[in-house]
Amino acid sequence: MSSFGGKSGEAAGPKGRRASRLRQQDRDVQLSKALSYTLRHGALKLGLPMGADGFVPLHSLLRLPQFHSFSAEDVQRVVDTNEKQRFTLKPGDPSAGPLIRANQGHSLQVPDLELVPLETPQALPRMLVHGTFWKHWPFILLKGLSCQGRTHIHLAPGLPGDPGVISGMRPNCEVAVFINGPLALADGIPFFRSANGVILTPGDADGFLLPKYFKEALQLSPARKPLSLAGDKETECPSGPKHSPRGRTIKQ
Description:
Elements: H1 2-42, E1 56-57, H2 58-62, H3 72-81, E2 87-90, E3 99-102, E4 116-117, E5 129-132, H4 137-143, E6 145-146, E7 153-155, E8 175-179, H5 181-186, E9 192-193, E10 199-201, E11 208-209, E12 214-219, E13 225-227, E14 235-236, E15 242-243
Antiparallel strand pairs: 1-3, 2-3, 4-9, 5-8, 6-11, 7-10, 8-12, 9-10, 12-13, 14-15
Helix pairs in contact: 1-3
């Protein structure tokens, strides 16, 4: 009997640990999404004191109802293990305690986000790429890339999977748009590098990077192949109907 019980415990052990890991991963994803929304978009609406550099006191954040089931240790783990390095956690003064911020992606105005200006063509990465999806491509081809309510357009210094590309583009993007950075820079459009290596630009006065700054475009999925930048031609989605850039406006 004892031997049978021992074997049953051994069999259940790995399954129990695996289930515990999955639950932990689910909680970490939930926490990461809550942090992203709060630190990028919702801090002021939620009554959090945010500095000009985007940092908020961790103890104030953890008092919000959506964070009641999480601890400072949970936040530290999510910050440390986030592959895209979305957040920075640093010690504050003794009265405030630790401070946390999102490194980029804000719709809130954060004037001192410690972005590094890229002021010459030589300072720009050799490659500047924006990743998007087929449903947005007709609008982008006609109107350009938009901030879409955020303070910056996000660019990556390479394609998903390239060395050093940890953020700035979702890994499941279907279309890559390559930007002529030096041309945009010559027209007065600024570029910056965030703490986690994302290249950011506010675009022009209307928050756009116009199609004239597109060097080329590449279909990433289902297979990689060049795309036409001719705005007067139909753009074909490989997995669905054709979309004309002269049709209805589609948000990115």
